Amino acid sequence: MEKLINKINELKREKNAVILAHCYQNVEIDEVADFVGDSLYLSRMAKNTNADIIIFAGVSFMAETAKLLSPEKRVFLPRKESGCAMADMITPEALEEFKSEHPNKPVICYINSTAKVKSECDVCCTSSNALNIVKGLGVKEVLFVPDNYLGKWVESQLDGVKVTTFAGCCPIHQRIVPEDMFEARNKYPNAKILAHPECHHTVSELADFVGSTKEIMEFVKNSDEKEFVIATEKGVVDRLTRDYKDKKFYLIKDSIVCESMKYTTLEDIYNSLLNEEHEIFIDKSVAEKATRCIE
What does the alpha-carbon distance between residue 46 and residue 68 come to, in Å, rounded to a whole number? Predict the structure, then answer.
């Protein structure tokens, strides 16, 4: 593996490339990544570099977002089949129908959506800032796509704001059920349970803390507690275990693994960089509107 890492780093210098790794990726990807974190953070960091090429170890909507924010850079997705089931749950046509059923309401789209969907929404949010985005609009009702559970979690944190949600979800987070939370409480009585707001609301209500991937990791960093049950994707547990040797981490259940996020290997990154494979292209008219939505 060390030899391959050296070859990737050498190619990266030759081609003036930057490598981004989402924190649900296989943990060894971090060995070649310039930045590791949530999707929008990664795209913003890449935008601020002078790189000519972006290699995004993540899924397709993330690579699209990087291209939207860095249109002058070439963006590559190492594995073209790395998609997001949640993002695929809403199409431009389904969005149009949803909007027509609830006319004259501002539409917020979660970052986990395609560029085409973003181009037909008013503002984009992440799981970290969704609450502040909705609050900042200062209206009584908003439409939220595609994640029903993040939207309803936001609604639960606000008084007097209706969040009308599209019926999308993250199938991985939906594998977590209340029984898992009760079992974790019994098995690890001294542990804090940290959950992602993409979880079903019956799960979020049982957590000690609900937050984005970044917020969960920051909670651990700033906490004096020594044991944590993590109710989100396994990649977060892998990184926390690596970074905080004095603390213990337990994945809520073994099946909380996003298969699409695990497709990418170091070999894929090397091949994508070497052969410049799987480049991301976005129609100009779509890109202009989607970029406004993000910004």
Answer: 11
**What single-letter amino acid sits at 169?**
C
Q: What pLDDT is stored for residue 14 in this prediction?
A: 97
Residue from 162, 141, 160 nearest 152 by CA? 162
Low-confidence residues of the chain, pLDDT below 70? Answer: none
Residue 81 is predicted with a pLDDT of: 95
The residue behind tokens 């850079």 is 73
What pLDDT does 103 receive?
A: 96
- Provide the angle, in degrees to the nearest 10, between the axes of the packed helices 234-243 and 213-222: 30
pLDDT digits (tens, 9 = 90+) for 104-156: 999 999 999 999 999 999 999 999 999 999 999 999 999 999 999 999 999 99
Q: Are strands 162-165 and 209-210 parallel, antiparallel or unpaired?
A: unpaired
Residues 43-64, buried b or exposed e (16+ Cβ, 10 A)? Answer: bbbbbeeebebbbbbbbbbbbb
Task: Report in angstroms the alpha-carbon separations of 103 from 95, 98, 107, 140, 149.
Answer: 12, 9, 10, 14, 22
Separation of CA 46 from chain center:
16
pTM for this model (two decimals) = 0.94
DSSP H or E stretch at residue 294: helix 284-294
**DSSP code, position 168:** B
φ and ψ of 143, to 5 deg: -100, 140
Distance CA 61, CA 57 (A): 11
